[in-house]
Structure formats: C-alpha cells, structure tokens
Design goal:
Layout: H1 23-35, H2 45-54, H3 58-72, H4 77-86, H5 90-102, H6 104-108, H7 118-125, H8 134-151, H9 158-165, H10 179-186, H11 194-203, E1 272-273, E2 279-280, E3 282-290, E4 296-305, H12 306-310
Antiparallel strand pairs: 1-2, 3-4
Helix pairs in contact: 1-2, 2-3, 3-4, 3-5, 4-5, 8-9
Pfam families: BACK, BTB
Domain BTB: 15-71
Organism: Mytilus edulis
Length: 311
C-alpha cells in the first residue's frame, strides 16, 4: 500500500471540503493510496500532478513528469516549462529549455508563450543560446508585455510593460535589435529610461553599454563539435578492469556531447568469474565528469553485456 503523510483535519461534521481538486481526480488519488494503481494521461496529467504535489506523492509526481516529457520536445515546450517550474520538475524544465533553445522562434510564436510567467520568461531570456534574432525576442517581449498588461487590467504602455518585465528587461540585448524597430517601438515607448536609450545608441558607435549585456547569443545550432581522443591508435584490447581517464582543458564554456567507449574484445565462450563463481561477460561502466577541483559534476553508470554489444 502506498504511504501518504498523516493529514489531521478537524471538522465539526463528517464532510471535509476540498475545493481545489475535482472529484474524479481525488478518486484517482485515493485509488492510488489504497490500491497502488493510477492511470495518468494527457487528459488528466495536470490535475493529477497538482494533487500529487499537494499530498507529496513522489511516485505519482514522477509518473506525471514522464507523461509531460512527451510534450517538452514539441510546440508545447513553453507550457511544459511553466508546469515544470511551478511543480519543481527539474528534468522536465531542462528538457523544455533545451527544446526552446533549439526552436526558439517557433516556441515564442506558440499559443501558450504569451501566458508564461515572468520567472519562466526569465529562464528563457537568461540563455545565451536562443536560436533566433534579438529582434525576434524584442517583438515577443512587446507582445508578451501587452498581453500581461491586459490580464492585469493595465494600459499596455511602455512604462507598465517595464514594471511587469522587472529585471528581465536587462536580459534583452537591445544593442542587437534592428535599429528601425528599436527607434519606432522601444525608444519612444517609455520602456527604457533616457539614459538606457542613449546607452543603446552609443553602443552602435563603439561604446559598450554598461547597463545591458554586450555578449551576443550563440544559437545551439551554431556550436562546433570537437573530438578529443585519448590515443591516436591502439595495439591491443582495453582491460575490463581499472580506471580509464582523459583530461582536457578549455578556456571557454563547453558542452559534453557524448563519450565513445570502445569495449574490449570478448569471445562468447570466455568471460570473467564473478563473486558467485559463475562466468559472466558483463562489465560495469561508471562514467564520471569532474571539474578542475576533482568535484563530480555528472555521472552515469550501466552494466553492459560485452558479447551482445559485439554481435
């Protein structure tokens, strides 16, 4: 039987109102608690996730995240990002952001993008790897700000959009925005102060802005791939035991795209004796990524059948 934290609710009558959860959803949660069974689909995942979060049902929450991951790599990535942020689903948030970085323009044009919260918008704007122009971002910010103003019953003026954006305003690289758009839609709108506007114009004459970021975004699609080999060539198979390592330094941020592992040659009739005395062709592989201080940044472990890998 599944466990749930002890909930002590005192009421004068036998009925306990739960106004924030639909009856069908609560029945699903009760079925899980007593029978360890639950059906999660695209139709009920958000309702189930809310209830699982409320009652701290980690396994159900994990099941909801698995369903939502199917939408993270699609035009619904912005909605998945908002859900991940709201319910602290780190894997879903990472996958959503990765997809948005690769398909920024399409994602910002999606129906749900205008409903992004200010915090989620900040997660996107904070990325240096958005696959669109800064002019595209500026267009979206003006549109998003106007939508948020209308939701708050405010006039969609530059000043009100500025207030709603908060510190997100300074994540926009205005110096890379098309100057015609900047002059017609931004400079005269009240979105920026006079000093901020002047700093953007000055940046086009060689003076770096001290207010906005001067670094240019580098889309994921423009990343170069480099291969670092431990050996130029090998003369004998690798051992199935011991530690194999490779160290390399970089003077800029890099991304580890993958690791090629050349497994040792093992004939089907051979193998090594494990602790039980039986012959096995399996070998445990543990990949650790360490920083300059030998602190582990990431790891991956798996057991591989050497013979099946070689067939």
């Amino acid at each position: 039987m599944s466990s749930i934290p002890c909930l002590r609710v005192y009421a004068r009558k036998g009925e306990i109102p739960i106004p924030d959860i639909e009856e069908n959803t609560f029945r699903d949660i009760l079925k899980y608690i007593y029978c360890d069974q639950i059906t999660i689909s695209n139709d009920n995942v958000l309702e189930i996730l809310y209830a699982a979060d409320k009652y701290m049902l980690a396994a159900v929450k994990g099941g909801c995240e698995a369903v939502l991951k199917q939408t993270a790599q699609s035009e619904h990535a912005t909605k998945a990002l908002q859900t991940a942020y709201q319910h602290n689903l780190s894997d879903l948030q990472t996958e959503s952001l990765n997809y948005i970085e690769m398909n920024t323009q399409a994602c910002l044009l999606s129906e749900y993008a205008l409903s992004l919260s200010r915090d989620c918008l900040g997660l996107i704007l904070n990325s240096d790897y958005l696959n669109c122009t800064e002019t595209d971002i500026c267009h979206f910010i003006i549109k998003w700000g106007g939508h948020q103003c209308r939701l708050a019953n405010l006039e969609p003026s530059g000043g009100n959009i500025r207030d709603i954006l908060g510190n997100n305003l300074y994540m926009i690289r205005f110096q890379d925005v098309d100057m015609k758009l900047f002059s017609k839609k931004v400079a005269v709108s009240g979105l920026l102060t006079n000093n901020e506007t002047v700093s953007i114009y000055q940046s086009h004459f060689g003076e770096e802005s001290k207010i906005f970021s001067n670094s240019k975004r580098c889309p994921v699609t423009q990343r170069e791939t480099f291969t670092v080999n431990r050996y130029e060539q090998t003369s004998q198979p690798m051992s199935t035991i011991g530690i194999q390592s490779i160290i390399f330094l970089s003077d800029t941020d890099i991304w580890l795209k993958g690791v090629h592992i050349f497994l040792p040659y093992v004939e089907q009739s051979y193998g090594y004796h494990n602790s039980t005395g039986t012959v096995s062709n399996n070998v445990d592989i543990n990949i650790q990524i360490l920083n300059d201080s030998n602190e582990e940044k990431n790891s991956s472990q798996s057991t591989n059948d050497l013979w099946s890998k070689l067939r």
